[in-house]
């Protein structure tokens, strides 16, 4: 598989995981409003670590969810920064 094929697959993966993460935050917020069984915090953070950090951040902003919890308020942006640095290194580094 060539470099362009890998980038295409990586882009599709990032889109899918970010959409899924965004929707997961929305579902958890919906459950919170209705006093339903909630999604564990680890299950909310793990997709962010696996590439869905932008979806997690957007989910926090759009759904107004987990914005005051320190591990989300500071953790998700920190994950984004690390992932951007890793992406830049993989694309441009040696």
Topology record:
Layout: H1 3-33, H2 41-63, H3 70-73, H4 75-92
Brief descriptors of the model:
elongated, mainly alpha, 94 residues, single chain
Account of the protein in words:
With 94 residues, this protein is mostly helical. Helices cover 81% and strands 0% of the residues. It contains 4 helices and no strands. α1 (3-33) packs across α2 (41-63) and α2 (41-63) packs across α4 (75-92). The mean pLDDT is 94.
Radius of gyration: 15 Å
Order of helices and strands: HHHH
The largest sheet is:
none
**In one word, what is the shape?**
elongated
Ends distance? 20 Å
What is shown here, in short?
Helices cover 81% and strands 0% of the residues.
């Amino acid at each position: 598989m060539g470099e362009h094929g890998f980038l295409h697959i990586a882009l599709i993966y990032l889109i899918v995981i970010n959409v899924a993460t965004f929707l997961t935050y929305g579902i958890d917020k919906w459950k919170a409003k209705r006093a339903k069984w909630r999604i564990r915090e680890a299950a909310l953070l793990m997709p962010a670590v696996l590439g869905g950090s932008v979806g997690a951040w957007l989910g926090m902003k759009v759904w107004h969810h987990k914005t005051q919890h320190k591990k989300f308020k500071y953790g998700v942006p920190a994950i984004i920064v690390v992932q951007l640095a890793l992406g830049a290194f993989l694309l441009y580094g040696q």
